[in-house]
């Protein structure tokens, strides 16, 4: 289910593989994630609900700050 949601093959999610899992032709056809992104999502899922909510709020704060920053 997670592999389908992420658009990556289940084997790639479980065992890793090339940086671009879409090369195998499998997946749901949505956005593609780097392996570091998939690992971050897996880490987020291991947190309890309270800490997940804190992580989401922190990420939203970073996104807001990033959009407000002038380009370098």
Structure characterization notes:
It is a single chain. With 72 residues, this protein is mainly alpha-helical. The protein is 60% helix and 0% strand. The chain has 4 helices and no strands. The chain is flat, with a radius of gyration of 15 Å. About 7% of the residues have low confidence.
Helix-strand layout with pairing:
Elements: H1 2-6, H2 10-15, H3 35-46, H4 49-68
Specify the number of helices: 4
Q: What is the string of helix and strand elements?
A: HHHH
Mean pLDDT: 77
The number of distinct β-strands equals 0
Distance between the termini: 39 Å
Which runs of at least 5 residues are low in confidence (pLDDT < 50)? 24-28
Q: SS-based structural class?
A: mainly alpha
Strand proportion, as a percent range, falls in under 5%
The helix content is 55-70%
Query: Tell me, what's the shape?
Result: flat
**Biggest sheet details:** none
Give me the Rg, rounded.
Answer: 15 Å
Short description:
The protein is an all-alpha fold and 72 residues long.
Q: Main attributes?
A:
single chain; 72 residues; mainly alpha; 4 helices; flat
